[in-house]
Amino acid sequence: MREKLARFMAGRNGVDQLSRAIMYAVLILFIASVFTHGKLSSVLMMLAVIGIVYMYFRVFSRNTAKRRAENTRYMQRTYSMRTYFRNLGERWKQRRDYKFFRCPSCGTLLRVPRGKGKIKVVCRKCGNSFIKHT
Ligand SMILES: [Zn+2]
């Protein structure tokens, strides 16, 4: 069974980040259509179905060059958004041990250990320093 699948997928695009993003969008559309009524619900459901079809089209596509280009474009366009959410996740994980400040002059996010009292924070990017309580 696994071999059969591997043979079937040979030369095909497979699941990439864009396909995964479409899958999440489809899931959200589907849930939204369940909780809405009438025309809006049907439109959301239709979009979800189109999304599923498009996702499978990309996964099984043999035009891997084109699919890879699409995926790269998607990754470039969403880079700042993905970085933002990854940073949020990291800050949440480190919230017990570190405090985060933005440099008042350049806006860089700075990480400082908690529980050190009043300290002078020096920005690693622009060298600006400011006093903060941790
Ligand atoms: Zn700075």
- Overall geometry comes to elongated
Query: What kind of sheet is the major sheet?
Result: 2 strands, antiparallel
The proportion of strand residues reads 5-15%
> What is the N-to-C succession of helices and strands?
HHHHHEEEE
What is the overall number of helices? 5
| Unreliable stretches | none
Tally of DSSP β-strands: 4
By helix and strand content, what is the structural category?
alpha+beta
Bound molecules: zinc ion
Helicity level, as a percent range? 55-70%
Report strand order across the widest sheet.
1-2
Mean pLDDT, nearest integer? Answer: 94
Q: Quote the distance from N terminus to C terminus.
A: 57 Å
What does this entry show, briefly?
With 134 residues, the chain is α+β, with helices and mostly antiparallel strands.
